[in-house]
Amino acid sequence: xxxxxxxxxxxxxxxxxxxxxxxxxxxxxxxxxxxxxxxxxxxxxxxxxxxxxxxxxxxxxxxxxxxxxxxxxxxxxxxxxxxxxxxxxxxxxxxxxxxxxxxxxxxxxxxxxxxxxxxxxxxxxxxxxxxxxxxxxxxxxxxxxxxxxxxxxxxxxxxxxxxxxx
Length: 166
Description:
Layout: E1 2-12, E2 20-27, H1 40-44, E3 48-51, E4 70-75, E5 86-90, E6 93-97, H2 100-111, E7 117-125, E8 132-140, E9 146-149
Parallel strand pairs: 1-9
Antiparallel strand pairs: 1-2, 2-7, 3-8, 4-5, 4-7, 5-6, 7-8
């Protein structure tokens, strides 16, 4: 499965204070509109966007989990905290888990042999030079998922004014 994206790097200033460096990809529609986690266009394809639970706090996030890199999903039915647990791996190492609510929906599908794949969508850091503190992934009901960079066409409308315009 291919998902259209744009690449972004920017600071984000959470309401509770501080700053976070975000780098990676954002899914977009054919006309270039940004698609949020719950966008109908993603839901219609079965695509889910979720944070990797525990990434950066309990598990190190190496370069194998850089935005755009494939992630592996592996069931962990013997997990003492959650029988529906799904590990997220990068480079063969566990970097976190699929969030509990989403794992509850995906675990029966994985157990039934239905393919699901994941790819690193964006990373969070305190600054561009600091270690990763969080990771967001895109999950798809397909054997593989990849990104295609969105390019404007003559039929797509502009979603933001060009730099320097008023």
